[in-house]
């Protein structure tokens, strides 16, 4: 069999992106399990490294990989909706704290947008970079759409959102431990506002009650970001 022709057929197939992504995630989860699920061995971060390294070593361009991998982008929405399950399980506790939750999460969402946008501008970044950074605390589909709606770059917004999620998953719970914040409601809300679904996935395994509040926080943050950022961004850029 002609190996060159076979390799060309692999590159032309949309299955490449699917298989590579699945293989990287399975291997990353196996490594995380072997490491005892320590936060420093984050499966998402490892999978990104594996996929990126494979593309560099094989010379496969990102556009070719994305032809198949974009299927997983379509699954981001249903995966986010599935976070309603922990919300349902903690519905009574959430209802009892509703008066505290809504203003706290709205304030946190607004602060995240304001700090991100102004920090980039004051550090010398251009307007487009600032607009791409502003929605980083929302989930990836929302951050991409919000950034593009206000003149940012969707792909950059996705990278910033992913970085916020991974950093939150790696360092967030440990930082809250150092600050002696033990209340699962506060832990979940704080991490959900700042690091959305990635940190919520970690909490589902380690702190189920906090995960419910994190899921609620990321949902409210997405609504606030999508609804307020188009009006807030022009005001902040004028500062």
TrEMBL record:
It is a multi-pass membrane protein. It comes from the Bacteria. Keywords: Membrane, Transmembrane, Transmembrane helix. Pfam families: LrgB. One of its GO terms (cellular component) is membrane. It is found in: Membrane. The chain crosses the membrane at residues 6-28, 40-63, 69-88, 100-124, 144-172, 210-237. Signal peptide: none annotated. This is Membrane protein. It comes from Arenivirga flava. The lineage of its organism: Bacteria, Bacillati, Actinomycetota, Actinomycetes, Micrococcales.
């Amino acid at each position: 069999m002609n190996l060159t022709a076979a390799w060309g057929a692999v590159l032309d197939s949309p299955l490449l992106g699917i298989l590579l992504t699945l293989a990287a995630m399975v291997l990353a989860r196996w490594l995380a399990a072997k490491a005892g699920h320590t936060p420093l061995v984050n499966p998402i971060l490892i999978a990104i490294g594996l996929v990126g390294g494979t593309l560099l070593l094989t010379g496969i361009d990102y556009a070719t990989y994305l032809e198949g991998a974009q299927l997983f982008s379509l699954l981001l929405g249903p995966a986010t909706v599935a976070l309603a399950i922990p919300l349902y399980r903690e519905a009574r506790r959430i209802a009892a704290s509703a008066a505290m939750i809504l203003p706290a999460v709205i304030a946190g969402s607004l602060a995240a947008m304001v700090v991100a946008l102004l920090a980039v501008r004051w550090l010398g970044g251009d307007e487009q970079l600032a607009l791409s950074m502003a929605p980083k605390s929302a989930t990836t589909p929302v951050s991409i759409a919000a950034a593009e709606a206000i003149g940012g770059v969707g792909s950059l917004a996705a990278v910033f959102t992913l970085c916020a999620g991974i950093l939150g998953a790696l360092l967030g719970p440990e930082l809250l431990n150092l600050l002696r914040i033990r209340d699962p409601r506060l832990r979940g809300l704080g991490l959900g506002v700042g690091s959305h679904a990635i940190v919520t996935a970690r909490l589902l395994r380690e702190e189920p009650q906090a995960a419910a509040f994190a899921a609620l926080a990321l949902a409210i943050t997405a609504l606030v970001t999508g609804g307020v950022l188009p009006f807030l961004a022009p005001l902040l850029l004028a500062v």
